[in-house]
Amino acid sequence: MRYFLCLIFIIIAFRIASFGQDIHFTQYYATPLVFNPAATGLFDENIRLSNNYRTQWSAVGVPYQTVSVSLDAPIRFRGKSGLGVGFMFLHDKSGGTKLTANKFMLSLSYLLRINQKNTISLGLQGGYVNKYFTLDGITLPSQYNPETGYYDLNLPNNVTDMDMSLGYVDMHAGIAYSGKFQKVEPMISLSVLHLNSPKETYCNADSKLTPRMLFNGEVRILCGKSWSVIPHILTTFNKKTEEMLFGVLAERAIPTKVITSVFFGASGRTSFSNFDAAMLTAGLTFYGITVGASYDINLSKLMQATNARGAFEISLIYKLKFEKKNYITLPCDRF
Q1: What pLDDT sits at residue 77?
Q2: What is the DSSP letter of 322?
Q3: Which of 82, 165, 201, 246 is the most buried (most CB within 10 A)?
Q4: What's the angle, vertex CA 318, arms to CA 292 and CA 193, rounded to 5?
Q5: Which domains are present in the chain?
Q6: Distance spanning both ends of the chain, measured CA to CA
Q7: DSSP letter (8 states) at residue 321
Q8: Cβ–Cβ < 8 Å for 295, 312
Q9: pLDDT for residue 173
Q10: Residue 311 forms beta bridges with which residues?
Q11: Contact 182/211 with Cβ under 8 angstroms?
């Protein structure tokens, strides 16, 4: 029975990988601490609050839902180099077994301000991951009733040698570069998730998460006084699996006190063997709050089952800038 249940979860894991290619966001740029700890504190304001909500695959069963919340801030020394500190929480629930994952992560980065135009950031992230599931509403072979010809939830499922939950410590690391020139603002980053290869299994097997590498690049190109174009790309590799998200955003600055900018764009997500989805995104910034909404149009082999319905996602980023900069100085007596 234990090996049979392990096989079930291998199928579930394959289903998750096939449908969602691991936990991901269309608006990944609105979840900076989820993908690279080096992004911690890598912004000009004093505090940043980021929140994303994603729901998908409601057309083919129980919808998958993912929520992320992060809070980070830079602590600069005399306005130059400094530290970035942050906290990130991720909640994901997927499938009929209500497979749930909760991640609590702390981030620390070193922000090296080379000059007014170039910054390099090194980041580490560590925390605790808890995952659990339930078999409520799931029928197993032992619950088949030959007298009625149907499965009966009232019959015992004979699951006695399997854990319903697990937990482990997870570690991530990354590096990022950002630059500001006259009309071009590039940003590139590289990160490695599951750096410590934590053990993750429900079946008492020696199953570990192998390190997962991500590369992200984007360029903000200023076009005149009001428009900006932002091409971007995110790639991830793990063993023999890969995923790439690429697209472009267009943003228009608006000289008002309430709404300061609007943006819209399109993107695509694919692997080397399967084009997964096309995504449309739009949003605006008001009072320092950036709100974005996106929709995934499913174009994979599941399109006939989903009727092209994929995922809906909404993001919120709030950046707060104090009137007095949070520089740290060391007192020194003068003689």
Answers
A1: 79
A2: -
A3: 82
A4: 80
A5: 2-321 (2.40.160.40)
A6: 81
A7: -
A8: yes
A9: 97
A10: 56
A11: no
Cα 189 to chain centroid, rounded: 15
Distance of CA 312 to the CA centre of its chain: 14
Query: Residue 15 above 50 pLDDT?
Result: no
- SS3 helix, strand, coil % of the chain, rounded to 5? 10, 55, 35
Query: What is the sign of the dihedral through the CA atoms of 99, 104, 110 and 116?
Result: positive
Q: Which residue has the tokens 């104090």?
A: 322
Beta bridge partners of 94: 99
Specify which residues 122 forms β-bridges with: 110, 175
Residue 261 to residues 180, 230, 288, 292, 305, Cα–Cα distance (Å): 19, 14, 10, 12, 38
pLDDT digits over 115-148, tens only?
Answer: 888 999 999 999 999 998 776 666 666 666 766 7
Structure tokens at 252: 């228009």
pLDDT tens for 176-225 read: 999 999 899 999 999 999 999 998 876 666 778 889 999 999 999 999 88
Tokens of 125: 């992230």
User: How big is the chain, counted in residues?
Assistant: 335
pLDDT of residue 8: 37
Question: Do residues 6 and 14 lie in contact, with contact meaning Cβ atoms separated by under 8 Å?
Answer: no
User: Are 57 and 72 contacting, i.e. CB atoms less than 8 angstroms apart?
Assistant: no
Cβ neighbors of 148 (< 8 A, separation 6 or more) are none
The predicted pLDDT at position 273 comes to 74
| Nearest one of 325, 327, 334, 328 to 45, comparing CA atoms | 325
Q: How many CA atoms lie within 13 A of 254 on its CB side?
A: 14
CA 218/CA 188 separation, integer angstroms: 7
Say if residue 302's pLDDT is above 90.
no
